[in-house]
Amino acid sequence: MLEYTGGNPSMPQNPLGSLFKTVAIMRIGAGTLLLVRHGWGGALSAYHFFWKEQPWAWVTAFHEAGLPYPHLTAPIAAVVVVGVALSWVIGFLTRLFAFIFLPVVITALVILQKAGSVQLEAAWLYLFIAVTLLLYGSGAVSVDQLFRLGQGGSKKRR
Fold it and tell me: CA angle, corner 127, sides to 123 and 128, nearest 5?
């Protein structure tokens, strides 16, 4: 949808120039921020929670929000966040991972709303980014585009 803007459509497009004409720059930036700000720390905390039996704030927040089995759902959420972030950064199965991320970010919205956290704004932004990537895909500079994933089969040229 956002793959082409202006000029002659029959001219070959430069992939690097296409980076700024598509959702790819948003996908890469959001994936990097998600990985650095939330995913990596969550994965390390999940590791310390499981293997070193250290307390973890996510488990406490999940328990206070009334989610079932917070000692299992918090690490699963951390793994999903890391997987989604990596998928968005490289552009691999972006729509699928955006769809998988929706329940996680909606749950985060509910938890953060109850806690009155300042990170509620970031959760809303990640929700809008996930919906945008679900609708538009990964953009021109991605693994999906490289292997033509999600383009509806092969097209025969005449």
Answer: 120
Range of the domain at 82: 19-145
Dist. CA 23–CA 80, nearest whole Å = 22
Tell me, rounded to whole angstroms, the distance of Cα 118 from its chain centroid. 20
Contact partners, residue 104, CB within 8 Å, separation at least 6: 77, 80, 81, 84
* Contact call for residues 116 and 110 (beta carbons, < 8 A): no
CA atoms within 13 A on the CB side of 87: 21
Distant-in-sequence, close-in-space partners of 72: CB < 8 Å, separation ≥ 6: none
pLDDT digits 0-9 by tens, 50-87: 888 898 888 888 888 888 898 999 899 999 999 999 99
Q: Pick 148 or 103 by higher pLDDT.
A: 103
Alpha helices, DSSP H only, in the chain? 15-18, 24-34, 40-51, 57-64, 70-90, 94-115, 120-136, 143-146
User: Total structural domains in the chain?
Assistant: 1
The count of C-alpha atoms lying within 13 angstroms of the C-alpha of 37, restricted to the half-sphere facing its C-beta, is 10
Does residue 3 belong to any structural domain of this protein?
A: no
When computed from its CA atoms, the radius of gyration of the chain, rounded to whole angstroms, is 18
